[in-house]
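Late entry, written up from scratch paper. The run itself happened at the end of the previous shift, but nothing got recorded in the book at the time, so transcribing now.
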Amino acid sequence: MGKGWKGAKDFVGLEEVTKVEFLVMLLAETLGTFLLVLIGCASCITWTADNPPTVVHIAFTFGLAVASLAHVLGPVSGCHVNPAVSVGLLVSGNCSFLKTVCYIVCQCCGAIAGSGVLKLLIPKEAIGQGLGATGLGEKVSESQGIFMEAIITFLLLLVVHAVTDPKRTDTKGWAPLAIGLTITVSHMAAVPVTGSSMNPARTLGPAVILGEWKDLWVYWIGPIIGACAAGVLYKMAFRRKKEDDEASYDF
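Output as recorded:
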């Protein structure tokens, strides 16, 4: 009975979210997502018709942005900066329910703020290019978009779990780089298909500022399905188990 109560208490995470330090974690998630969306989406804007951004350009911008943020914010909040990451860690038992909800709210607010600031910083002509909004490629169906987003987010969450597993000494210190490179390679593969969101908040920000909601649900369903699948798989099959071990997924 005591063990079951402790498990339920840890899952809810009420004690964790009532600490003063939790406010700093929420600030870190808001700031991190704000910077990610502002910088990442800025790389997607076409400034001149003769020199549009390339897939490689966009991929490395997002990948290196996350790697940089992870070095700074990882020890503070875990640097999720992505609702799908928070949900995936919830499913694997490495993030409490209330913490996940609070993180997602802050991530979405940070993303919207990042897109809003980006709109203020660029000429009106560039805003017509979409503020880096994600969209399905030509002739790509909604189901194909969901599947692609699920696959790349599945890969991201597998890497997140692996490089932050406290029992794996071979990955110590490599988490930011590994996660950044995973995002980079996923973008190289998926930008032509879906815009490679793999982050619901990253898609939500430009959508809110532009008032364009078409296919927004694809970028929530796909990443969350992929994140949940990765969380379950890592917890059930890949994680090195040890009695009474409680992993921390902060960098």
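The radius of gyration is 18 Å.
(Scratch paper discarded after transcription.)
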